[in-house]
Every structure is written in C-alpha cells, then in structure tokens.
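Subject — a protein and its fold
Fields — amino acid sequence, structure tokens
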Amino acid sequence: MSTAEYAVGTIAACAFAALLMKIVSGTEVAELLTGIISRALNTDA
C-alpha cells in the first residue's frame, strides 16, 4: 500500500473510534451497562 492509502485508513480508523466513543459515553449505554452489572451481582439464589 502507498502512503496515501495508509493515511486514508488511519483517518477512517480514527473516525470510527470517535464514533464508538460517542456511543459508549452516552447515558443510555452507561445505564444499560450499569443495569447488567447490578443484575449480575445481585444473584439471590
């Protein structure tokens, strides 16, 4: 691959990472993960 292809790939990877960070840092995802963890820890068996 040429340097230009590496640059485009790097920019695309950074954009994808930024999108994932925005999704994961949202309140809905945080509440969902908190609910999953609390249900997993509250094993009343």
Q: What stands out?
A: The mean pLDDT is 87. The chain has two helices and no strands. The chain has one domain: 3-41. Residues 3-24 form the longest helix (22 residues).
